[in-house]
Structures are given as C-alpha cells and as structure tokens.
Amino acid sequence: MVKDLVWDNILSVGVDEIDEDHRKLIHIFNILNHAVMDGESGEYLAATLEELVNCTVWHFSHEERLMLKYRYPEHQAHQAEHQDLIQSAKQLQQDLVAPDKALADQQIQFLERWLTEHILTADGRLGAYLSRAM
Ligand SMILES: [Fe+2]
Fold it and tell me: What's 36's domain CATH number?
C-alpha cells in the first residue's frame, strides 16, 4: 500500500500558478492510488492514468511557456527532463493495456517519485528563478 501524497509547503516552488498545477497533479495521483487500493477495474485505472498523463502534458507546456517568456537559462535541460518523464509515463500506460492488469505498488511508487523528485529539484530551481524574474 502506498501512502497518499500530501501537499506541503516544502513542495511549493514559490510561484502560485505552478503550485496550483502541482496540487492538481497530486490530487489525480491520489485518485489513482486509491483506485489501485480499491481494486478498481483495469479500464478505470487506465482512464485515471490517462487523466494524470494528460494533465502532466498540459502542465509541462505551461512551464515551458513560462521558461520561454522569462528566458530561463536551464530551459533545454528542463524541457529534456519533461520529455523523459512523459516517455516513462507512456511506458507505464503501455504496461497497463492488458485487461485487469492492476498497477502494482511498485509502479505507483515509481509515479510518486516521478512526481515529487521533479517538483523538488528541477521545478524548485525554476520557481526560484521565476520568482525573481516575474
Ligand atoms: Fe518542470
């Protein structure tokens, strides 16, 4: 069983519009976590993971627009990290295609790290830069 992610100030990157997106992503992650715990159908899990991936893709374009607008020096590296993250999430979606194949705790933990590590490292640096530039 994987614990829910709880929004905490430590996750704040200091830019409200980015924090707002991250809260939403955490919310969907928790819905997915509960779906696994409750033994929801493969179809439901796939739909929830799809929602998480779509929301993440949208959020990344939001950050990419801000990086361009404020000429973020680490833009390329950050964008490459986004692309990697999307690739691994899509891989997870492929693994989930088989009917009734529930997401294992291991996969949920992978998603949890995926979400928090990026927020705490790359997004933290971006937020610090944007707080000064915006
Ligand atoms: Fe990011």
Answer: 1.20.120.50
